[in-house]
Amino acid sequence: MHCIRKITGDVTWVGANDRRLAMFEGVYHVPRGVAYNSYLLCDEKTVLFDTVDKAVRQRFLENLAEALGGRTLDYLVVQHMEPDHSAQAIELLTLYPSLKLVCNAKTRDFINQFHEFDFGSRVVIVGEGDTLETGRHTLRFIMAPMVHWPEVMVTYDSADKILFSADAFGCFGALNGALYADEVDFEKDYMDEARRYYANIVGKYGAQVMSLLGKASALEIDFLCPLHGFVWRRNIGDFIGKYSLWGSYTPEESGVMIAYASVYGNTENTAEILAHKLRSRGVRSVMCDVSVSPASDVIAEAFRWSHLVFASTTYNAGIFVTMESVINDLVSHNIQNRTVAIIENGSWAATSGGLIREKLEECRNLTFLDCWLSLKSSLKAGQLAQLDRMADAIAATFTVPESSDAALPGSIDAKTMFKLSYGLFVLTTRDGDKDNGCITNTAIQISENPRRVSLAVNKANYSCGMLMKTGVFNISILSESAPFSLFERFGFHSGRDTDKFSGQEGCFRTENGVRYLPEFANGVISGRVVECSDNGSHMLFTADVTTAFVLSGEPSLTYQYYFDHIKPKPKPRAERKAGYVCKICGYEYEGESLPEDFTCPLCKHGASDFERITG
Ligand code: FEO
């Protein structure tokens, strides 16, 4: 029976999962299975993006037939010829006699290598930037050689803003009913598998990944559809951010991967003591026994951490076999930009350390710490000081906060306050016929019985005076769908000289007569002020909750989400006009000079927190 899922009105996922595969590509363990994604576009023409592995052929063919709904298949775009994505290409050409295969010249060569098929006129060769019109959709082909194989290309659909990204942005793991990354806790449950997939499958080709990211940066992307793993429709920038770290071999985290190979436990014991010494110096570490940790896990950890320690016994006058294999793998995956320390062991002729270093010297930008430790069978008490020196040398390379006096008693870095987590809300008030609203981030529940909330409002806000006078208000709790225009409307102007509700459709009020936001908010709280205290720049209001209702199940908007996903990114320097930028929240003021009494309309900080934008 078919098992498909719509992505947009015209695009359907017709892929399938394999949970019985032991080793992906015969090398990588996939204990959580793997998904083979294929996507069908039904426009005036029907277009399939890639097929699946032969192991899931039957489900895929059922899915495709169902999604086609009796139509024929006009085009098969082969973005990646690797057989886990092209196994049904020839079969489909037989099943659908008018089907044309769309691919680049390299792909056609590869297909012939695998199948020796006579395409005749049934192949459409495309190159960089070529397009295919299918009706409402225009498909643009973008070459992505070596993201994983030389023939790889990706496709951009400008109608639905979809990037069909081939192997890029993939992940190990079967889809368990969730198609979208936002339907699971990706960071917690899948990021490790996404990193392992990246590091092992395309880790060697960082330069080519960066080139693809460069091309993708010019595209507006609403959906990212890879050939393995989840489809992305939210927080796409976050995942692309991971790719730009991985692609540029930039460590994701500060800390140490200690990989060790130990026959009788003495090298392991030394590695373990080092891990404790590091932790007592505030340095995080993870440990991998390379004899039991699959190599793909070790490679992934090496792509994650900033520092690498290799501790290996000597074996047959060389590096211990499992460590040698890991080191070879790391070199061939092009690991770069790491700080490295080495521990060797050998009962009569320790050579492993020198050999490890020799191999790693093939990699770019590795810094070898000058704290060699050579063991004879086991660590001796007299060598603990050497291990301490290694821990000191590693710890010394971690960046110390620039202004160490920031931690001195009494010194205050205003940005620290932004480390507090906040929501974002529209506070609405009404005085006679005048409706007003402003953005606030300070509403919290302070007691259950009586049910009370507090909110702090900047005295400069018109709403503050209104609230002091009337004592009644609504808080519309903003959801992640809130657009930037809402912040412009309620946050960038004063209610003294603007009607913030002008042009708004409908007039939604709670029983206290105050307006609220029927959209872009997931709940509304009405309050009556019971106490108000002066706190310098802000008035603090304590209020009884008089009404509260939920509007939607959408996630509440946090201050961090606003900065990451809603607030427009600063323009490239070259495009910026003369002006000033708020160092606290990033608000940009255009103009040659900033008035001394200027207050940031977003975060309410004064002119002293602005700095000049230089071209
Ligand atoms: Fe799943 Fe490079 O292929």
Question: Which descriptors would you attach to this protein?
Answer:
16 helices, alpha/beta, single chain, seven-stranded mixed beta sheet, binds MU-OXO-diiron, 615 residues
Count of DSSP-assigned helices: 16
Bound molecules: MU-OXO-diiron
Average pLDDT rating? 92
Q: Mind telling me the C-alpha Rg?
A: 30 Å
- Record the strand order, biggest sheet: 1-2-7-8-9-10-11
Overview of the molecule:
The protein is α/β, with parallel strands linked by helices and 615 residues long. Helix content is 26%, strand content 27%. The strands form 7 sheets. A 7-stranded mixed sheet has the order 1-2-7-8-9-10-11. Strands 17, 18, 19, 20, 21, 22 and 23 form a 7-stranded mixed sheet that branches. Helix 6 (191-202) packs across helix 10 (295-304), helix 7 (206-216) packs antiparallel against helix 8 and helix 9 (266-280) crosses helix 13 (384-396). The relative contact order is 0.06. Residues 401-406 have low confidence and may be disordered. Residues 80, 82, 84-85, 148-149, 167, 227-228 line the site of MU-OXO-diiron (FEO).
Secondary structure topology:
Blueprint: E1 5-6, E2 11-13, E3 16-18, E4 23-24, E5 28-29, E6 34-36, E7 39-42, E8 46-49, H1 57-68, E9 75-77, H2 83-86, H3 89-95, E10 100-103, H4 105-115, E11 123-125, E12 131-133, E13 138-143, E14 153-157, E15 162-166, H5 186-189, H6 191-202, H7 206-216, E16 223-226, H8 236-247, E17 253-261, H9 266-280, E18 285-289, H10 295-304, E19 305-315, E20 318-319, H11 321-332, E21 338-345, H12 352-360, E22 366-368, E23 373-375, H13 384-396, E24 425-431, E25 434-440, E26 444-447, E27 452-458, H14 462-470, E28 472-478, H15 484-491, E29 521-535, E30 538-550, H16 559-566, E31 579-582, E32 588-590, E33 610-613
Parallel strand pairs: 8-9, 9-10, 10-11, 15-16, 17-18, 17-19, 19-21, 21-22, 21-23
Antiparallel strand pairs: 1-2, 2-7, 3-6, 4-5, 7-8, 12-13, 13-14, 14-15, 19-20, 24-25, 24-28, 26-27, 27-30, 28-29, 29-30, 31-32, 31-33
The structure holds MU-OXO-diiron.
